């Protein structure tokens, strides 16, 4: 990934925080079938130098063939993002030498996946994932809320994957290259238009 040093994020707690907050990621593989990509929700677990990703795919997903062959994997987690208009920059009025851009944060993870067919492992991953996503809800749903025979039938249709993280990169492009006045102009513009409170929070605390 192209990432100028100004935008590089290397703090592991920040990188892991984005993964946990935005678990739906693009799983990209490059194998004998060429490039393949799917949106998959992941759960993050401790282990190794950088952590372990776990997920499940539909048994009929052709990407499983690539993973079984040992295909290289890239997992892309996308956080808050927003379009930035030059109209928000005070410097526009001063010299006009400004262009539109896009602010965003993302994490890219690389590793090789292990395909897992064990129903107990897959059930534990489902419980972990749904537990993470449901924990803030007043009436949280649990896997055990579904009838046991229904859950068993569903488990037969999915396969687990585990990716020990070999490399992890973060890019936080939130206008660190702009003057403070321009950065404040973006924050004010987003607030005025009611756009992306998460991006406003990131920029305000940078």
Automatic annotation (TrEMBL):
InterPro entries: Split_barrel_FMN-bd, TR_PAI2-type. This is Transcriptional regulator.
């Amino acid at each position: 990934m192209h990432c100028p040093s100004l935008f590089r994020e290397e703090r592991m707690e920040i990188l892991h925080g984005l993964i946990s907050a935005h678990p739906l990621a693009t799983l990209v593989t490059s194998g004998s079938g060429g490039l393949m990509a799917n949106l998959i929700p992941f759960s993050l677990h401790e282990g190794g130098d950088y952590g372990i990703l776990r997920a499940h795919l539909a048994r009929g997903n052709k990407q499983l063939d690539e993973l079984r062959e040992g295909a290289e994997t890239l997992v892309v987690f996308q956080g808050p993002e927003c379009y930035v208009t030059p109209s928000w920059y005070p410097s526009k009025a001063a010299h006009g030498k400004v262009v539109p851009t896009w602010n965003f944060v993302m994490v890219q993870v690389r590793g090789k996946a292990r395909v897992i067919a064990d129903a107990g492992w897959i059930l534990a991953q489902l419980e972990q994932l749904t537990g993470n996503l449901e924990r803030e809800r007043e009436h949280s749903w649990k896997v055990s809320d579904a009838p046991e025979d229904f859950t068993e039938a569903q488990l037969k249709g999915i396969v687990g994957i585990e990716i020990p993280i070999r490399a992890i990169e973060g890019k936080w492009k939130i206008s660190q290259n702009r003057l403070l006045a321009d950065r404040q102009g973006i924050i004010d513009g987003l607030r005025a238009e009611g756009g992306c409170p998460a991006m406003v929070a990131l920029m305000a605390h940078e």
